[in-house]
């Protein structure tokens, strides 16, 4: 589609759905990250798959910029540094697997893995999250899943929950982690034709709603207790895993 075509051909209900997606993306970036999966699903209902992926990626980057500034004092840089290599390796492995195995099969496989990790995580210390090797495994899994199914959040969230991060350090670390991941994916997405002038323009039109969502998230997260935060993250990881398995 040419630039005006994509914007003008979308009916009002489509714009309303994308507006909700933008709010959810912003909220996810400053509050509960798993909410972004709902935005991904909704966008795919009103736009072609490639277009929805491009629009959501640009919206995510807008939310990332707010999140990294908001939580800039709550980042575990050592952890992010340790995860760089395994994440890049996971992205590379995911790209290779996309050529070998059918996409839906990969998505379901990742969903099953996440459900297994979720169940294991119900028992204290089973994941031994303090071990560097465990962190590298989760980093690789995050890179792999973000490449094959745009679902890098759940593995990272499970790892930080197992490592007993408080909500502020959790938010700061994930903010910078996913900003780096999404920025890495941007040139690849441009090269694949996923992010184009029309999808970027559509995301720009929706950007004010992303910013509104980040504000709502910042206000909300202050009122959420640590235990409630952990439970909400776990619930959205489970929802994400079930989506990968069944849809």
Description of the molecule:
The protein has eleven helices and no strands. It is mostly helical. Helix 4 (49-70) packs antiparallel against helix 9 (167-191), helix 5 crosses helix 7 (132-149) and helix 8 runs antiparallel to helix 11 (226-246).
Listing every helix as H and every strand as E from the N terminus to the C terminus, the arrangement reads HHHHHHHHHHH
> Proportion of β residues?
under 5%
How many helices? The count is 11
The helix content, as a percent range, equals over 70%
* CA-based shape: globular
Low-confidence regions: none
Strand count, sense and barrel status of the largest sheet are: none
Please state the structural category.
Answer: mainly alpha
Mean pLDDT: 84
Tally of DSSP β-strands: 0
N- and C-termini, Cα separation: 27 Å
Estimated radius of gyration: 17 Å
What is the strand and helix layout of this fold?
Elements: H1 3-9, H2 12-30, H3 36-46, H4 49-70, H5 77-100, H6 103-120, H7 132-149, H8 153-162, H9 167-191, H10 197-221, H11 226-246
Helix pairs in contact: 1-10, 2-3, 2-4, 2-10, 3-4, 4-9, 4-10, 5-7, 5-9, 6-11, 7-8, 8-11
Which features does this protein show?
single chain, 247 residues, mainly alpha
Sum this structure up briefly.
The chain contains eleven helices and no strands. It is mainly alpha-helical. The longest helix is centred in the last third of the chain and has 25 residues, at 167-191.
């Amino acid at each position: 589609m040419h630039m005006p075509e994509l914007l003008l051909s979308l009916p009002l209900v489509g714009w309303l759905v994308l507006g909700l997606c933008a709010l959810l993306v912003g909220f996810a970036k400053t509050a509960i990250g798993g909410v972004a999966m709902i935005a991904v699903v909704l966008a795919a209902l009103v736009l072609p798959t490639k277009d929805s992926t491009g629009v959501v990626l640009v919206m995510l980057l807008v939310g990332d910029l707010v999140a990294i500034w908001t939580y800039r004092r709550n980042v575990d840089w050592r952890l992010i540094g340790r995860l760089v290599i395994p994440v890049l390796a996971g992205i590379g492995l995911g790209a290779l697997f996309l050529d070998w195995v059918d996409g839906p099969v990969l998505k379901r496989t990742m969903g099953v893995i996440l459900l297994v990790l979720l169940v294991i995580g119900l028992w204290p210390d089973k994941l031994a999250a303090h071990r560097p090797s465990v962190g590298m495994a989760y980093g690789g899994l995050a890179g792999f899943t973000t490449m094959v199914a745009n679902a890098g959040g759940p593995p990272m969230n499970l790892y930080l929950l197992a490592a007993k991060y408080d909500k502020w350090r959790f938010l700061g670390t994930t903010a910078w982690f996913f900003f780096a991941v999404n920025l890495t994916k941007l040139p690849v997405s441009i090269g694949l034709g996923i992010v184009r002038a029309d999808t970027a323009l559509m995301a720009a039109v929706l950007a004010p709603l992303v910013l509104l969502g980040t504000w709502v998230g910042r206000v909300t997260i202050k009122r959420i207790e640590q235990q409630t935060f952990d439970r909400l993250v776990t619930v959205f990881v489970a929802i994400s895993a079930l989506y990968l398995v069944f849809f």
